[in-house]
């Protein structure tokens, strides 16, 4: 039986090599767009001694070095590069065939993935499959640290004046049963800054899970988990919570939702501990919001999460703003889940059925989160495309998780120009919407499971009775879009073989009024300019996809006290990836595979509105961030290898590499100036290992994302 398995893997591997040679697995790119125009092969096949256990497969690891071809004006095509590897790989296959026969405990599946990942490394860049000694480094300490690269929040965490545990709970079979606890302010503790530390431990098999933390009806932290591995993972993450200071001064009901399946297949529970660390930083000015109002379902009285699911739900609330409010900001948390998790890979609905046997989601690859006040547009967010730890390919995210995984970012809209209208003592409506591009109506509905909440932060004028304003000047034109589709059919025009779509968009808006409070009159402004580009190419009857997307934006708001020029924040979100899926006719005879390349960045220079208004003397300079993640991974499964759990296991069934550059310069929560750089590289998948980790006390150079299309 084992010898038969060895023959099967040889057959499957040869089929895969033939498909690569025939250009069926390669990106649909011309030569000039290759990440590495030419390659130099340095093959070191480690065959020093026989394998005596399935977990020692790394002794057969191949190390491939790929580099740019210097001094040449031309580049090799994808087909040529793959072809130059085939003879080497096939020679290795013949040598490995003897090893399989001699050592039948080596499974066909594990042998195949190593072969495939060699081709991956030889064709698409510097992927290093390390030796057994390198792999051992990640397992010697027991639990694997699965981390998000992030700059330290302050110069030191050791000076907390007090601390307390906010949440300590194991989320096992927790669907519909959130954690419910209570919070009380620390006794005899003078503090200004509050930092939450989240620690999570998990072992087994499970999906990534979304965690939502509420104080009462107000969501204060949204996070997604790492996917566990059988031997166990842990991680810690710190989040500055100071903008919620008014909540921490009184008793609160604490609700944390983390819907998890826990049974004989999904064996990973999540042990969560959230600890509040309080610091008494001597700020020259400390002015947190006086009150925070929720835009949510307000379900805490029923011991339930208050998150709203759009478009099926209704995210409209009625609120009365104090007559003497002098500043107001709305913070929005929104993330697509389920069918909307990969919204940026969707197409307009009329093109979703382009391929008969391949599912492509509709409602377009564009999303706009809107805030409306009394039915009028106040501001928008064009969201950052978060990739959860099960996203694109699970093996990409162990041990380095994606950008913003542990702290889903909120978007802030300054509604202070509206205060002349809002401070009339009457109730006003605040509504959140999520819309997509529609070829007929411009903006239309989206798929289910956009989870959204909002919070209205209000500062009051203690010496004033009534805030007034001039007539607000508003410019809110409709966004502009340009959509182009191209469909290719087979020679007899009976079957669609490829779909190429391009969507561009632009929007601008602004609100300005002169507000009068007890301290005088001043002009307040909120403005936004946004641009968007998405290009997708679906080939091989929709089984292969190449995507490039770029979202950029600029927002401006008025400073805290003076009539000087507005404060400006800019951001850019480039993302590009390629994925190819191969499914055999008989899944018991050969592996199904998913090959993925991902390259993305987050580039920003921002003054966060809430943090700035809370501690204006700290945020005198913008926070400048540049980070890039580049990874590639082969992921495989079949009907005899972990038919259910194997399809989501990031450790078994994957092999690849992820690399990240991170550079930050900006204010720390304690008033210090933080400069931080980090470069990490990891082998993903089976027994993942961190093979490079360089940390700098200054900024570093971050290379640009290279678009694949």
Structural class: mainly beta
Number of helices: 7
The fraction of residues in strands falls at 35-45%
Characterize the main sheet: 12 strands, antiparallel
Tally of DSSP β-strands: 33
Number of domains: 2
Oligomer state equals single chain
Q: Mean of residue pLDDT?
A: 82
Share of residues in helices = 10-25%
Shape, per Cα inertia axes: globular
Low-confidence stretches: 1-141, 640-651
Using only C-alpha atoms, the radius of gyration works out to 27 Å
Distance between the termini: 45 Å
Describe the structure.
- It is a single chain.
- With 709 residues, the protein is mainly beta.
- It has two domains: 2-129, no CATH class; 144-696, no CATH class.
- Helix content is 12%, strand content 40%.
- The protein has helices spanning 2-21, 78-102, 108-123, 132-139, 245-248, 419-422, 609-614; strands spanning 44-45, 62-63, 144-145, 162-171, 179-183, 193-202, 210-215, 218-224, 233-240, 252-257, 270-279, 291-295, 308-310, 316-319, 325-336, 367-373, 376-381, 411-414, 428-438, 442-444, 450-460, 468-469, 473-475, 480-489, 496-517, 520-539, 544-557, 567-582, 592-606, 623-637, 654-667, 673-685, 689-696.
- Strands 22, 23, 24, 25, 26, 27, 28, 29, 30, 31, 32 and 33 form a twelve-stranded antiparallel β-sheet that branches. Strands 3-9-6-11-4 form a five-stranded mixed β-sheet, with no helix packed on it.
- This is Peptide N-acetyl-beta-D-glucosaminyl asparaginase amidase A N-terminal domain-containing protein.
- Residues 155-474 form the Peptide N-acetyl-beta-D-glucosaminyl asparaginase amidase A N-terminal domain.
- InterPro entries: PNGase_A, PNGaseA_N.
């Amino acid at each position: 039986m084992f010898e038969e398995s060895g023959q099967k893997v040889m057959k499957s591997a040869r089929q895969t090599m033939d498909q690569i040679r025939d250009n069926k697995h390669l990106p649909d790119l011309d030569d000039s767009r290759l990440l590495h125009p030419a390659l130099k092969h340095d093959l070191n096949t480690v065959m020093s001694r026989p394998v005596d256990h399935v977990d020692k497969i790394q002794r057969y690891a191949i190390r491939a070095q790929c580099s740019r071809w210097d001094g040449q004006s031309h580049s090799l095509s994808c087909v040529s590069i793959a072809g130059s590897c085939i003879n080497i790989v096939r020679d290795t296959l013949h040598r490995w065939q003897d090893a399989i026969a001699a050592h039948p405990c080596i499974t066909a599946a594990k042998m195949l993935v190593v072969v495939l990942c060699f081709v991956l490394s030889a064709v698409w860049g510097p992927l290093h499959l390390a030796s057994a000694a390198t792999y051992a480094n990640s397992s010697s300490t027991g639990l694997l640290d699965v981390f998000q690269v992030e700059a330290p929040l302050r110069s030191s965490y050791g000076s907390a004046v007090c601390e307390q545990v906010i949440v300590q709970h194991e989320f096992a079979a927790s669907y519909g049963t959130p954690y419910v606890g209570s919070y009380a302010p620390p006794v005899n503790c003078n503090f200004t800054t509050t930092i939450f530390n989240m620690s999570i431990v998990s072992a087994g098999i499970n999906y990534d899970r979304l965690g939502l933390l509420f104080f009462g009806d107000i969501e204060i932290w949204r996070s997604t988990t790492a996917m566990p591995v059988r031997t166990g993972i842990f991680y810690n993450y710190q989040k500055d919570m100071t903008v919620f200071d008014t909540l921490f001064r009184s008793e609160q009901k604490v609700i944390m939702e983390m819907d998890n399946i826990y049974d004989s297949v999904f064996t990973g529970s999540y042990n969560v501990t959230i600890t509040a660390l309080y610091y008494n930083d001597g700020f020259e000015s400390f002015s947190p919001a006086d009150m925070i109002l929720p835009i949510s379902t307000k379900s805490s009285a029923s011991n339930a999460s208050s998150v709203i699911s759009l478009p099926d739900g209704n995210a409209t609330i009625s609120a009365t703003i104090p007559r003497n409010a002098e500043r107001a900001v709305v913070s929005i948390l929104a993330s697509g889940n389920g069918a909307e998790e990969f919204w940026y890979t969707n197409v307009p609905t009329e093109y979703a059925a382009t391929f008969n046997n391949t599912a492509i989601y509709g409602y377009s690859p564009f999303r706009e989160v809107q805030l409306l006040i009394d039915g009028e547009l106040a501001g928008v967010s064009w969201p950052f495309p978060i990739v959860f730890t099960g996203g694109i390919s699970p093996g990409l995210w162990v041990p380095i998780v994606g950008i913003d995984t542990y702290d889903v970012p909120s978007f802030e809209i300054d509604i202070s120009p509206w205060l002349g209208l809002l401070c009339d003592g009457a109730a006003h409506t605040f509504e959140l919407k999520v819309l997509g591009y529609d070829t007929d109506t411009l903006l239309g509905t989206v798929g289910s499971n956009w989870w959204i909440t909002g919070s209205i932060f209000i500062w009051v004028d203690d010496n004033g009775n009534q805030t007034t304003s001039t007539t607000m000047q508003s410019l809110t034109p409709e966004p502009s879009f340009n959509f182009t589709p191209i469909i290719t059919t087979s020679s007899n025009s009976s079957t669609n073989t490829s779909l190429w779509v391009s969507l561009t968009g632009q929007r601008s808006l602004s609100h300005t009024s002169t507000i009068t409070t007890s301290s005088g009159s001043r002009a307040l402004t909120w403005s936004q300019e946004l641009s968007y580009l998405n290009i997708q190419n679906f080939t091989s009857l929709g089984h292969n996809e190449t995507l490039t997307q770029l979202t950029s934006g600029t927002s401006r708001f008025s400073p805290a006290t003076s009539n000087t020029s507005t404060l400006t924040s800019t951001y850019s979100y480039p993302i590009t990836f390629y994925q190819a899926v191969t499914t055999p006719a008989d899944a018991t005879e050969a592996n199904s595979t998913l090959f993925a390349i991902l390259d993305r960045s987050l580039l920003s220079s921002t003054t966060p509105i809430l943090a700035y208004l809370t501690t204006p003397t700290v945020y005198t300079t913008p926070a400048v961030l540049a980070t890039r993640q580049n990874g590639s991974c082969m992921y495989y499964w079949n009907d005899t290898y972990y038919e259910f759990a194997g399809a989501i296991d990031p450790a078994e069934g994957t092999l690849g590499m992820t690399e990240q550059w991170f550079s930050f310069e900006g204010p720390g929560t304690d008033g210090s100036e933080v400069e931080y750089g980090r470069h990490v590289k990891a082998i993903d998948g089976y027994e993942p290992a961190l093979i490079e980790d360089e940390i700098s006390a200054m900024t570093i150079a971050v290379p640009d994302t290279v678009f694949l299309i």
